[in-house]
Design a protein that fits this description.
With 543 residues, the protein is an alpha/beta fold. It has 20 helices and 18 strands. It has a six-stranded parallel β-sheet with strand order 2-1-3-4-6-5, with helices on both faces. Strands 9-8-7-10-11-12 form a six-stranded parallel β-sheet, sandwiched between helices. A six-stranded parallel β-sheet has the order 14-13-15-16-18-17.
């Protein structure tokens, strides 16, 4: 684990994993005790997402391992390098009904089968003689370009065996070089299509962020004066406060990027975007009708998956954009006629307001005011883990210094707080978690993990006493037949007091000024934003 560069392990001990914990006692690795194993998996995922390095979590056998499933599934969907160590009963108990056994023998839980579909590699290590092979496989899956979770389950008696430390010399800890350099014809064809286009548009996907290609993206945009929209996961790939930024594309957005794509663009460069359900408005063919399409992705399976491209380029996004920028400069391709994005957004907003199609009405003005306050008071950037999504997607313009982490993956409730705790172990900047009151009650106990380990954190809690998306759907689609969506909340001011953390409640836009007295860089803050239970964002997937 040390040779893999792992610095933090999130988890919870149990009798079947104590030998491993005992060796961690003398290591350089910091262990953090969580309140629930799902939180450990989400924390590891948040750490990996923020650092780009391998993260780790550790649990005991049986329920310790099964409680990880949702967090590991999320890491799998997000391609996060997370090493999971779990305990297991001793091998001589297999099939006999050992306490918390999950060997798959004798009718016990089959942990290998349980994790098979949500890991890149999973091994129940029943002997030490093949340990070098297992550890080498684990390392390669964690270090590869498209990593994912690796689960190693170690029986109690195997943990106690002695092994020669020399086995580590048989393991490769080097990341493979896999640049996917763009073919020259792909660059030449891209330049030709850009030259012929009158109003090109670039759509930046998470591939741009993963490839650290934001600077190259900005240079190409500036060189040709091309506006840029992003997918939700790529918010901030281009500074959203810049003149060429159209905001994010997708079902829960205000629609400026979608309108520009449909009404103005004649060429679209899709850069590392999967064009899934949210981004593509449920794969609406009208989005790209009558337009030329260039799609670039480091994953060949993404090319042409949702829409047919006129030019598909299999390449690393960083290498492609650098090569494209150099070719545009060498061939002196002239810039396009500048598009006044500010005027376009204003006109689109006026049109949607007049038609009664605005996504938010006045009942959300204080939420808008809160995010405007964040923009003004954190010029050096912040990190935001966002389970709520719809507010920040529309109200918060992610700058080049910010880090925005929406809850995509499998979109699990209860993700933002533990993921933000994991990230806060790595990031030297204010860390925020935005979450609804339904999701909050799935993970509120992890605030005590932050308290116990003195981790600074800011939680934005949207309180409308309901499962907002469920209630919205039951209002719009099921004639107000509300069922299992409303609930009573605790007094969050008293809850914060019992946790020993700060609390602030905002009920309207005038109360945002109260935030000025709070320290967002040290300690833990719970910011409760009250919402009308019957106020719904006005968006549709257009299905």
């Amino acid at each position: 684990m040390e040779r893999l560069g792992i610095t933090h392990v999130f988890g919870m001990p149990g009798a079947h994993i104590l030998p491993v914990y005992d060796r961690l006692y003398e290591s350089r690795i910091t262990t953090l005790l969580v309140k629930h194993e799902q939180g450990a998996a989400f924390m590891a995922g948040g750490f990996a997402r923020a650092s780009g390095r391998i993260a780790a979590c550790i649990t005991t056998a049986g329920p310790g391992a099964t409680n990880l499933v949702t967090g590991i599934a999320n890491a799998y969907a997000e391609r996060q390098p997370v090493l999971v160590i779990t305990g297991e009963t001793s091998t001589h108990f297999f099939g006999k009904g050992g306490l918390q056994e999950s060997s798959g023998e004798g009718g016990s839980i089959d942990q290998v089968a349980l994790f098979a579909g949500i890991t890149r590699y999973h091994k129940l290590i029943e002997r030490t003689d093949y340990l070098p092979t297992v550890l080498n496989q684990a390392a390669q899956h964690l270090l590869c370009r498209a990593p994912g979770p690796v689960v190693l389950s170690i029986p109690f008696n195997v943990q106690q065996e002695s092994v020669d430390a020399g086995i580590l010399e048989q393991i490769s800890f080097t990341r493979p070089v896999d640049e996917h350099a763009p073919p020259a014809r792909g660059i030449d064809a891209s330049v030709a299509l850009l030259q012929a286009a009158k109003r090109p548009l670039m759509i930046a996907g998470h591939g741009c962020v993963r490839a650290d290609a934001q600077a190259s993206l900005r240079r190409v945009s500036e060189r040709l004066d091309i506006p840029v929209a992003s997918t939700l996961k790529a918010k901030g790939a281009i500074d959203e406060r810049s003149a060429r930024a159209l905001g994010s594309l997708g079902v829960t957005s205000c629609g400026y990027a979608m309108r520009y794509l449909e009404e103005k663009a004649d060429l679209v460069l899709v850069l590392g975007a999967a064009f899934g359900e949210r981004t593509s408005y449920a794969w609406d063919r009208r989005l790209l009708a009558g337009k030329k399409l260039i799609q670039v992705d480091h994953c060949a399976q993404q090319l042409g998956k949702s829409f047919r491209a006129d030019l598909a380029v299999h390449a690393d996004l960083g290498a492609y954009l650098q090569a494209l920028d150099a070719a545009l400069a060498a061939q002196e391709v002239p810039a396009k006629e500048p598009a006044d994005i500010g005027a376009f957004i204003a006109a689109t907003r006026a049109r949607t307001d007049a038609a009664g199609e605005a996504i938010f009405d006045h009942r959300f003005d204080h939420v808008r005011a809160f995010y405007a306050w964040l923009e003004q008071h954190f010029p050096d950037g912040l990190a935001l883990f966002d389970d709520n999504i719809v507010f920040a997607q529309n109200f918060y313009r992610v700058s080049a210094k910010d880090r925005y982490y929406p809850n995509t993956g499998i979109s699990s409730l209860g993700h933002a707080i533990p993921a933000a705790i994991g990230a806060a172990c790595e990031l030297d900047m204010p860390v925020f978690a935005a979450i609804g009151d339904g999701g909050f009650q799935m993970c509120a106990m992890e605030l005590m993990t932050a308290v116990n380990h003195r981790i600074s954190l800011n939680v934005i809690l949207f309180n409308n006493r309901t499962m907002g998306l469920i209630r919205k759907n039951q209002h719009h689609l099921y004639h107000d037949r509300f069922m299992d969506c409303d609930f009573t909340n605790p007094d969050y001011a008293l809850l914060a007091q019992s946790f020993g953390i700060r609390h602030c409640r905002l009920e309207d836009g005038t109360q945002v000024a109260k935030l000025a007295t709070m320290d967002f860089r040290q300690g833990i803050n719970l910011i409760e934003i009250m919402l009308d239970q019957d106020a719904y964002p006005n968006y549709s997937s257009r299905r």
